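User: Here's a chain of 67 residues. Predict its fold as C-alpha cells.
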Amino acid sequence: MDFRLKVLRKKRGISQLKLAMDLNMNQNTISRYETMEREADYQTLIRFADYFGVSLDYLLGRTDEEK
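Assistant: Prediction complete.
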C-alpha cells in the first residue's frame, strides 16, 4: 500500500506538529502513520482525507486522481 499522508502533508507545507494539532492528535502518532509503523483506523483515514480534500482511494494509493 502506498499511504500518501506524508506526501500530502509535505506538498502542502504542513508540519507533523501542525497536522497533529489541527486534528487533535499526537505528533508521534502522525509520524508512526507516515512510516507505517501504525495503521490508521477507518475514522482516522476519513479525517485525513477530509483534511486534505482527497478521496480515500487517493490517500491509500489506489488511484492517482485526488478526487
